[in-house]
Amino acid sequence: MASAFFTWVRSPAAREYFFSTHFWGPVANWGLPLAAIADLRKDEEVISGAMTTALASYSLVFMRFAWRVIPRNYLLFACHATNATTQLVQEGRFVNYWYMGGKEKRDAEKGPVTKAIEATRDEAKKVSDTK
């Protein structure tokens, strides 16, 4: 299997593929899904619903293009499938946060930093009231 791959890599067909837009277009396009994957760790407050919908739609359309073009561009298809999946997950996070009570639930849960800030404010108020 490995010897067949290395034989193909040395062939003119491989050079033709690696120096074509069927290879470099999808490679350059991988920035979108990589950024989307990195954004999965960000706060839901900063998700743009309109942009996420646009990016998911764009990737769904170009998934079809990558499948229908001859020869099929599997690298482009994989890139857009990854991006569409990630954008749809982001869209779900957006809808959950803004429309399904996620914001209210998070606001009700106070973290240790928020509790420390409130305790400091209470102590500061007690000190200022005694003066």
UniProtKB/TrEMBL annotation:
Keywords per UniProt: Membrane, Mitochondrion, Mitochondrion inner membrane, Pyruvate, Transmembrane, Transmembrane helix, Transport
Any one GO cellular component localisation term in the record: mitochondrial inner membrane
GO biological process: pyruvate import into mitochondria
Residue numbers spanned by region Disordered: 106-131
Pfam families with a match to the protein in the record: MPC
Membrane disposition: Multi-pass membrane protein
Subcellular location: Mitochondrion inner membrane
UniProt similarity note: Belongs to the mitochondrial pyruvate carrier (MPC) (TC 2.A.105) family.
Biological role: Mediates the uptake of pyruvate into mitochondria.
Protein name in UniProt: Mitochondrial pyruvate carrier
UniProt source species: Cerrena zonata
